Amino acid sequence: MSEETGTKKPKTLFTKRIQHAGSPDSDGPVIVLFVGIHGNETAGVIAVDNVLEKISANIESVNGSLYAIRGNLEALSQGHRFIDTDLNRLWEMYNTEKDFSTSLASDEDMPVEYLESLKVKSAIENIIEKHNSDKQKIIFADLHTTSSESCAFILINDTLANRKLARKFPVPQILGIEENIQGTLLSYINNLGYRALGFEAGAHTSWNSISRSEAFIELLLHYSGVMKLNDDELEKLEKEIKTYEEVPDTYFEVRYHHLIADARNFNMLPGFTNFDPVDGGIPLAYENGKLVSAPESGRIFMPLYQKRGHDGFMIIKEVSPLWLTLSGWLRQSFNHSILKYLPGVTKIDEQSFEVDREIARLYVKEIFHLLGYRVTEKDSKTFICYRR
Hints:
The chain is of the alpha+beta class and about 400 residues long. The protein is built from 9 helices and 19 strands. The strands form 3 sheets. The protein has a 12-stranded mixed β-sheet with strand order 1-2-4-3-5-8-6-7-9-15-14-11, with helices on both faces. A 4-stranded antiparallel β-sheet has the order 16-17-19-18, covered by helices on one side. A 3-stranded antiparallel β-sheet has the order 10-12-13, with no helix packed on it.
């Protein structure tokens, strides 16, 4: 570990898990980056090192702090997505009956990722405790890459604060991903009340993924006020991450999610890349020797070309500008307490409702999404709707 000394000067701090550059006190905006949550996704790790090197050469211009937290150190050392279980699927276990943080914390047979998550969680808590004066000052971002070729894009839990931040970047935005991929680190951060973005830079093995990750980090530092770019620098970096011409720079939502039990028995047909248009009925993959076709038209999203994971592919569609405007207005003006009077709706607490799908049959997801709720299935007859 190396550290610049001095009580008043900005500093850089490096440990195996945590890297930091910025002001020695808690003033100014705070950016917290997660990299290497999956061990085969190293573009973000390299990008953070490169950006911190640039910052170190101009440290006096930093107003605030940049932290980078490396996730799955064991998987990174082996170049695998994970060792025992996916580190980015554990985060909804905390504070539930599945919480492993006390019962298994000293168990030598526990999955590697359980211990990794506890260390990441501790790092998050320490940063929040140090900078807890204002939640609006802290922004979290999780950097990833994909197994297929792709332009850069952003994933967000659909809150107005996340939308406002994400739209500063000239890339597609995927709304409400937490309904389809549960237990993510982004959802955990949002549930704590902080803004959080997921940035996907491109393919695992593409050099472009490193340069796009660097551009994203520098733009985030600029937009948050940690470091300021001049007009030429800003234009260059925005051009670096800008989406392909054939992919609209707009909001998308997931319309279909093809889950798989075992990636070893799933084979995408070759040639599909993120955001490729597909027609309903077109062959996409083989699973257990059977052909899998697109259930509806749209754009293919995150097709799986690796042998680990449970997300085969998704179908996404553009979100109507009218829906976005209406949802923004309703979320700020609607009296949510009246929802409990709707047929089939029962209030659980101040933030959530249970919906009987045999009574409330029409447009349940659409209505609750419009009002800013996450909708999950409790069972085949019941939705649980959480206010984001």
